[in-house]
Each structure stands twice: as structure tokens, then as C-alpha cells.
Amino acid sequence: TGFETFEQRAPAAIPVAGDPTDNPQAPTYAQLAAYVSFDGGGRAPQRIGARVSALLGPDGLSERTDLALAATTIVRYESVTGHNVPRVFRDFMAAAPIDALFAFGYPISEPYWAIVRVGGQETPVMFQAFERRLLTYNPANPPRWQVEMGNVGQHYFFWSYGRPLRYAAPPFSGVRVRETTLTIPTYDYQQALVPTYPGDPIHPYPRLDPARVGSPQPRTYRAIVVENRFLELTFLPELGGRLYRAVIKSTGQNAFYQNPVVKPAPFGQRGWWLGVGGLEWAAPTEEHGYLEAFPWDVTIDRQTNAMTVRMTTIERQRELDMTAIVTLRADEGLFQTQLTARNASSTPKPLQMWMNAALASTANRVGPAARFVVPVDRMIVHATEDRDLPPPRATVEWPRRNQRDLSRPSAWNGYVGLFAVQPVRFAGFYDAQADAGVVALHDAGFAGAKVFAFSANFDRRLFTDDGSDYAELWVGAQPTFWDDPLLNAGDQRVIRADWMPLHGLGDLAVANESGALGVQRRSGGALTVSVVSARMRSAAPVRVLLDGREVFRSAPIALRPDLPLTIELPPGRAGGTLRVETDGWVLETTSGS
User: Fold this and answer.
1) How far is CA 307 from each of CA 125, 298, 386, rounded to the nearest angstrom?
2) Most confidently modeled of 35-49, 214-228, 357-371?
3) 429/437 Cα distance (integer angstroms)
4) Which residues on neighbouring strands pair with residue 585, listed in sequence order?
5) Which residues have CB under 8 Å from 397's CB, separation 6+?
6) Three-state helix/strand/coil letters over 256-291
7) pTM for this structure?
8) Which of 204, 308, 333, 444 could hold 301 in an S-S bridge, CB 3.0 to 4.6 Å?
């Protein structure tokens, strides 16, 4: 996982042929290890003229004489590795328009039959492992496709990263939507809900008796999936209308934390909260509000080159009409969000309104290289266990305080929550190890921005079952949790944000509604600059300036959200103001920061 970091992995329990999942009879790579040759061992006797009838299944080898077809007749014995090759594989390799030994290598296993699922149907397939390829023979296929090369590269990618190779999916134009379901283990918290009565500050919302919460059981939730060529967004209307996933399709990375269970946690104003993950709509109080655990109504608005998901609910305590809108446009690597509260009553009502993104870019965890990026020099303490920080409402230097980089949760001695001291036009979270993150954008500036994360000693069993972890990035319609402005009768309040999942920047420096800029310092002090555009740009020249002096200029090139442009500047003066200009779009930062 790096020049000097390693991770032990179990052998790949991935089928060597057929469907990648729900394929119980197919041999796996882990099982195949006992039947291949390494360092001259595992040789088989010569069997020229015989037909292949050996079947390899979960319980080992058995005989299937009915599968000993003429096409499986052994016609070659490779003395170097000691294995037999059937006619169909020899003929396939001989017909290849390239040197067969170079392309396939020597055989390292015998040919075997296996019962595998192809398109959900079980069928007999013969396979054989070579040094550089795995060949399959399916007699049920059309003649030109009876012999194929196994998807070893995709299988390896899935084993290594735990997700499919997204580039294997064909791109498409426009925006499309589908409805599906997701099954998530869910604690039975419904039976533990306790009604409240007037006088309780959270009435009419229920409280929760933790002693009555039942064990987790699989529960199926309705899911709405909207995607363009760059992003795939998944919504769960029954769980607060949240945006549950935001997947970068070129890498398969989910910008959001995704809790593997739905489990009530003892957080928030109600005394309980569902930390499901994703982007939640928090209103009408501080913290997580009251709305994330209850169903929202959803409608889809289809436009020519965009798709809008509109979710609505009634906030019952203050009688507010809540509407959350998410718009995904074709050919853009960001999505637009808007949360609106309307006071339909005849009296003013206090209102706090936030969007809260739960983020985790490294295997559903906050890695040691993760950091928040907020363009201010001071932050306001909300709450913390870190005794080196001042009490709530005091300000602290940002990002560095007393030689400590407070932008990195790995440097905290307990959980920390901090508000920006002033409105900001962007706030982000980036993990340099995963080379991925997300940024929230507002061209006029967010009234409030907050960061929060746990520390290594926090008991994560309070909200999950697998030790996973998240950080929170909040943007709000008011500066802090201590601000509770009135919403007059008949009025509405709106907060807007563009959210841009990021990858390939190295590290996040600055962002605006057009894209993001990453800056890294190489050994020797030279800079690497990475630029990612929020939308397709067909021909844009790029200039890089240091303190007003041009240090790089390109011819017009295509910029797109899934292909960050990385520029290695030559060694030389690396401090000062770094400015990147392209197609009327400017990003500027201090290169020494």
C-alpha cells in the first residue's frame, strides 16, 4: 500500500469464471492454489489423446465422463511446467495475432471442468490457468466465443480494493434515474421509541429507551439512484431523505461515510440519532435536528440535461414545511443542493438549518492523512475532549496551533467540533493517502461552517458495529449552534451548496464553483500542482503563475471531472502566491501553506 507499508490479505475467494457473486460451485483463486505449479512442482503425467473429464468443485476433484468432449482432447504436453493442453485452448492460442508464449505464458495447471453460474444460470465450463492468462471453454456459447480469456485483471482489482473496476462500465451522456432497494442490517429501535408530551422540549418527537432496542435484522429500504457519466447518487427517502452515497464512477470511491448498520446512537437533541452516513438535512434545532430518522416524500423532476430529486416533509414541532432539492446535471462532477424551510404558521419560529455530510475516504475510516480545509485563520470551539484546546465559544488559531496541525483529526486528543469564525465560500475534507475527498461550495459564502471528528480513543460501538469511523463537514444558514434566528410568519429561509467529490489532487488547497486545486511539495522543494474541473471543458489553455511570474503554460487541452490535470513544476522558487488560470477560471492559494 506504499513504498514501505504493507497489508496482509487472505487468498482471493473470487470465482475464476462466471458471475463474480452468487456463484457457489465455481472454484476460487484461493482453491486453485493447490492445483497450480510453482517453482517446478505440481507436475502432471503426459495424457496426449485423453479427454478432459476432471471436475473441480468446492469439495475437490471428481469425474464427469459426460463432459469428456472431443474438443477437450489433450493434444500438447508442456514439458517446462509439466501440464497438458486440450485442443480448444491450443487452437485459440495458435490463432492469436501475437506470440502465444509472450501473451499467455506456459500452462501452470491442468484443464478442469467446473460448474459455474453465467448470467445466473449454472453451466459446465472448462478452464485452465496459464502464467499470464486464464482460459475458459463454454461449449454453450456461439462458436467464436466458446473460448475466452478470464477477467483476471478485474478479479484482482476487486480483491485488492473491494470494489469493481468502474472503467469497465461504458460511459453514457445525459442523466438517468432508477429505483431499487438496499438491504441494511437495522437495529429494532422502533419498539424502543417512547412518546413525549407537552412540556418535553422535543415534543412531539419520541425519545428512545436504549434497553428496549432489539438486535439488528436485515431491512430493505427504498432507494433512488441518479447518475451521470461522472457521479452516482443514491437517496434513501425512508431515512430522512438523505443522500446516502455519492460515488465517483471512475474510481468507485464513495465520498460519504456509509455505516454498515442502522443503529441508534446517544447523540443529538432528541437523545438519540441514526448515524447512517451520507448527507443529512438538519433542522429545526442545533446538532442533528429532528428529521433524519423519519421518512420524507420524494418526487423526480426530469429535465433535458439534468435530474432533480425533491424531498419534502413537515417539521412537526415548529410547523415548518421542509424541502430538500438535489440536482445532478449532465457532464458535471458536482451536484447542487438546496434546503428550504417555510413558516406557514401565523407566528415567528426560531430555526437552525444545516446540511451535514458524514465523510470517510479510506475504507470507511478517517485515515491519518485526512484533513479539513477551511479558509480562515481562526476557529470557534463548539465542544471538545481535547484538554489542550480552550472551552466552548473561545477561538483557536487555524490550522496550526502551538506546532500542532489542528486541521488533521489524527492530531486531536479527543473529539473536536469547530466553527469557522466568518463566512467561507468553500470548506473541504481531503485524505491524501486515499487521494480523495469532497468540497462544499457557495459563491456568496456559507453563513456557517463546522468541522467535527472523533479521536482514536472514542468508543465507536456507540454508533456502529465494525469500528468504522467518519468526520463531519457542516454548512449552515447561521454561524454557530448558538445562533437561533427567527423565521417570520409566511417567510422562508434557504441554504444552498454545491458538493464536489474529489480525487487525484494529491491534496486540496482551494476550490470554487468551477473546480479545485491541489498542491504538493516534492522532495527538493519543487511543487506539483493538480487541477480538476467541475464540468467538461473541451479546449482550455492552462497557466500557472508564482508571485505573478509565469512558470507553466499549456496549449488548449480538454479538462474534465474524472481526469485531474497534474503539473510538475521545475525546481526553483516555490514559495509565495500560486495562481492557476484557465478558460476564465482562476484559483489562487499560498504555495507555502
Assistant:
1) 43, 13, 44
2) 214-228
3) 5
4) 582
5) 377, 378, 406
6) ECECCCECEECCCCCCCEECCEEEEEECCCCCCCCC
7) 0.75
8) 308
